[in-house]
Amino acid sequence: MEKEERIKVVFIQPGEKPKLIEIENSLKGYYGLVGDPIQAIYPFEDDAAVICNDEGKLNGMPLNRAILDKNGRVRDIIAGNMIICRAPADSEDFASLSLGQARKYLERFRMPEVFINTPEGIMVTRMRVVNLKDHEIER
Predict the structure, then answer these.
(1) Is the N end or the C end of the chain the one with fewer CB atoms within 10 Å?
(2) How far is CA 129 from CA 12, 44, 48, 54, in A?
């Protein structure tokens, strides 16, 4: 598989809705969105990967989204910005998400999350984002 110069990824910032964007497929492109150093994790059943800051939690970056296990329990929480892209098994390079993957991850992560520490563990609550312009009252 030939390396793509630019790739389509889902970009997610804490407290924001995800966006489908195109980025430079290089360390420079990843660093520009998530910072340095980066790490890639592979928590999904398909060939998608999460690229995030390897020291996000240590550096106190805001919590972003929970990664759930097959039973819906919190497996990890990503701190700071995150990128979701493809990591094809037959390549050493990241690649563009398929249209189906883009839709899947835009939907899965569409609502920002809030994290609450409880005696039983961390509780994840999804926030509903309201665009105030859509709800303005005409005068």
Answers:
(1) C
(2) 14, 25, 26, 28
| CB neighbourhood size of 123 (10 A) | 12
Q: Per residue of the chain (139 residues), give pLDDT as tens.
A: 688 999 999 999 999 999 999 999 999 999 999 999 999 999 999 999 999 999 999 999 999 999 988 888 888 999 999 999 999 988 899 999 999 999 999 999 999 998 888 888 777 888 776 565 554 544 4
3-state SS assignment for residue 132 = helix
**What is the DSSP track for 71-127?**
TS-EEEEEES-EEEEE--TT-SS-BPPPHHHHHHHHHHT-S-EEEEEETTEEEEEEP
Burial 50-82 (b: 16+ CB within 10 A, else e): bbbbbbbeeeebebbbbeeeeeeeeeebbbbbb
Tell me how crowded residue 18 is: count the other CB atoms within 10 A of its CB. Answer: 22
Question: φ, ψ for residue 119 (rounded to 5)?
Answer: -60, -25
